[in-house]
Design brief:
Distance between the termini: 52 Å
Helix content: 55-70%
Strand content: under 5%
Structural class: mainly alpha
Oligomer: single chain
Order of helices and strands: HHHHHHEEHEHHHHHHHHHHEEHH
Largest sheet: 3 strands, mixed
Number of helices: 19
């Protein structure tokens, strides 16, 4: 037992040494360092517990239970795994222009939120919250004053990962709207409110059982095991319904966060990677998700915005191109599914469809101008910002002939202007050979560079010039290190 304790202690000290190294690293946001500090505090608590065990002698040492050492060792290993987001979020891995808008948005919703963003080689955008598992790990370790270890630290640590190959694709970061939606869902508990309603219809379970048997389940599930099949479908339906509701909540929230840009980013990613009508236990069909986002954009007035009378040649061209894109997405959403899908998911699909009006209502209860995008804001900003992009000027402000500096703009305005410019040029795109594709990519690189620069210049303005009552407070702002 003594050897096991000493070995565990050595590993705990090795973890602390690694965390000290992470604390000395450079990060685009102070959130990464804050998490590293918390992990060090927690690992130090485990090291102290192991040191107390190692110092015992004789009969006292013999009374140490193997499970006690095992719990401490496993907790240490779990803390080490949760240090990975910190290591991946070093400054050289994450563009500064991505950190600032995402963390600022999250802190406007919840000042007690901190965000860590890091790349991953999986082509996916993902979200998870760290404080709950950290508290669970330390509760498992036990001991006195466990909660005191967390005093002074944020209530939420949101960890978001993005595809490393899209490192500088700031327009694609509108997909963060969905991941931010997951965080808002955690903060507001919207999924739990939705699931309080009876959305899963027991009769749909019977329909799914009949369909499974019809397409070949007779031999797998003979009459004496039909109840087993029903339980299997019910369990899968309950799990899928919870997951799908959470995804749809995040989709609707994303529309409130970034407006049309969220749908444009989603429709640019998901159909390339996933069949539109094939769900899984974690995600509903992509076509349904796009339809929900498009309908919410209509309800909020964004689609009508691009049907309004035009004011100038640029605005006319943009509205024509974006209206055509909305029409394309509408047709895609209305198209009949290419296959019937797995019958196991029939109950979850019906439940999710029943949940949509409830989701919309719950999201609107929490959506405020403090963090949400709005039609009014886009109407005032976005077309003038596209004009700046056409002239290769970062869309960081709107020109004001009466003042030395321009009028400040929203982060959502900047990101949406980028997407409208991209859609405008995509309408004119003809790719016949590799050189055409290369020119398109070069144009996108230039566009992303302008958007990143606009976010940087907007922040410089915030730091140096007097702020209006609608600007973020210093408590809202992400604690980011400015790029050199």
């Amino acid at each position: 037992m003594e050897v096991t304790i000493i070995s565990s202690l050595q590993k705990a000290l090795a973890l602390q040494r690694a965390l000290k190294k992470l604390l000395r690293a450079d990060y685009p946001s102070e959130s990464s360092r804050t998490l590293a500090e918390l992990l060090f505090v927690l690992s130090d608590n485990i090291a102290e517990r192991l040191l107390q065990l190692a110092s015992k002698e004789g009969s006292a040492l013999a009374e140490v239970q193997p499970d006690e050492v095992l719990v401490l060792g496993r907790a240490m290993a779990q803390l080490a795994r949760l240090a990975e987001p910190v290591a991946r979020s070093r400054a050289e891995n994450v563009p500064w222009g991505i950190i600032l808008p995402v963390e600022t948005l999250c802190r406007r919703v919840s000042p007690e939120s901190r965000v860590i963003i890091h790349p991953q080689w999986e082509y996916n955008y993902t979200y998870y919250e760290l404080m709950k598992p950290l508290r669970r790990i330390m509760a498992g370790v036990g001991g006195e004053r466990v909660e005191a270890l967390f005093e002074g630290y944020p209530s939420y640590f949101a960890v978001l990962a993005f595809p490393a190959v899209e490192e500088f694709n700031i327009l694609q970061s509108a997909a963060w709207g969905h991941e931010i939606g997951h965080h808002l869902n955690v903060v507001f508990g919207i999924t739990e409110h939705v699931l309080e309603h009876q959305i899963l219809d027991p009769s749909d379970i019977d329909v799914a059982v009949t369909e499974v048997l019809r397409i070949g389940g007779q031999s797998q599930f003979p009459p004496e095991s039909r109840e087993q099949l029903r339980i299997l479908i019910l369990e899968r339906a309950a799990r899928a319904t919870r997951n799908w509701v959470a995804e749809l909540v995040s989709d609707v929230l994303s529309v409130h966060v970034f407006g049309p840009a969220s749908l444009f980013a989603f429709s640019d990613i998901v159909p390339v990677l996933h069949p539109l009508d094939q769900p899984d236990v974690t995600h509903p069909p992509a076509r349904l998700r796009m339809r929900v986002m498009l309908e919410e954009l209509k309800r909020l007035g964004y689609v009508d915005l691009f049907a309004e009378s035009q004011n100038g040649e640029t605005e006319e061209a943009v509205k024509t191109a974006v209206s055509a894109e909305f029409a394309r997405l509408q047709a895609l959403c209305e198209r009949e599914p290419t296959d019937g899908g797995e019958p196991y998911y029939i109950p979850a699909l019906k439940a999710s469809q029943a949940a949509i009006p409830i989701i919309v209502e719950e999201v609107r209860k929490v959506s405020t101008e403090r963090w949400a995008c709005s039609v009014t804001t886009l109407r005032q900003e976005v077309f003038k910002l596209v004009e700046r992009l056409i002239h290769e000027i970062p869309p960081c402000e709107i020109d004001d002939s009466t003042k030395l500096t321009g009028r400040p703009v929203s982060l959502a305005g900047i990101v949406n202007a980028g997407w409208l410019y991209r859609i405008l040029h995509r309408q004119r795109l003809i790719v016949k050979d590799e050189s055409d594709a290369v020119r398109w990519q070069e144009m996108l690189d230039k566009l992303n560079e302008l958007i990143l620069k606009a976010i940087e210049l907007r922040d410089i303005r915030w730091r140096l010039l007097p702020r209006s009552s609608t600007d973020e407070s210093s408590e809202d702002r992400a604690q980011c290190r400015h790029p050199n």
